Amino acid sequence: MKSLDDRLAGRLSELRVERGWSLDELARRTDVSRSTLSRLERAEISPTAALLGSLCAAYGLTMSRLLAEVEAEPPQLVRAERQLVWRDEESGFTRRSVSPPHPGLRGEIVEGVLRPGADISYEGPPVPGIEQHIWVLDGALEVTAGGGVHEIRAGDCLRFRLWGASRFHCPGPVPVRYAVMVVLP
Fold first, then answer.
1. Which class for 141: exposed (0-12), middle (13-18), buried (19 or more C-beta within 10 A)?
2. What pTM, to 2 d.p., does this model score?
3. Which of 141, 93, 95 shows the shortest CA–CA distance to 114?
4. Where are the beta strands (DSSP E) in the chain?
5. pLDDT in tens, 8-24
6. pLDDT surpasses 60 at 87
7. How far, in Å, are 2, 8, 69, 110, 166 from residue 74 at the CA level?
8. Alpha carbon distances (Å) from 151 to 12, 74, 120, 142, 170
């Protein structure tokens, strides 16, 4: 059975081919080098959160939807031990797909954990106007979206529609654990 990185590489290649884009065209759309994209599609490297964010924006997909596409048919009930977990060790980000996306539904729930000092920026949303509800479970999270900077502490919830760039930063001194409810427009 292929690894998650191998299945993800294959799906990213399929998405590019389905759109009739060359690697050069995808590089232009994402501002990621052609060689990096080529190595990613051959599963020679694992994507960072920021790189996946750029690719998802180019393809008009949420990260959860992309990751769900490389999974088998998602069941209605997903036990904790079966939830897809993806780690970007370089940026200090761990992402758990708590409630996987489903073609017939518009919402999903994702758990994120950022180590102290972690800082992840996304150039734009995967789908313009996507709705997000961010509920901090432990620690503190600084979110930049819609031209504003919001510090969210344990128990707080920030909600917004995303049209432009966003940034997630863990100011520390402890990791932040948060849930994101993502709702497609």
1. buried
2. 0.66
3. 93
4. 84-88, 93-99, 107-114, 119-122, 130-138, 140-145, 148-153, 157-162, 166-169, 176-183
5. 899 899 999 999 999 99
6. yes
7. 17, 16, 9, 15, 28
8. 34, 34, 15, 4, 10
As beta bridge partners, residue 162 has 130
17 and 32 in contact (C-beta within 8 Å)? no
* pLDDT tens, position by position, 100-148: 776 667 789 999 999 999 999 999 888 889 999 999 999 999 999 988 9
The owner of tokens 């191998």 is: 6
Cα(125)–Cα(57) distance, integer angstroms: 6
Three-class secondary structure of residue 168 per DSSP: strand
- pLDDT band at 178; cut points 50, 70, 90: very high
- In this structure, the chain runs to a length of 185
Nearest residue to 127 via CA among 161, 103, 95: 161
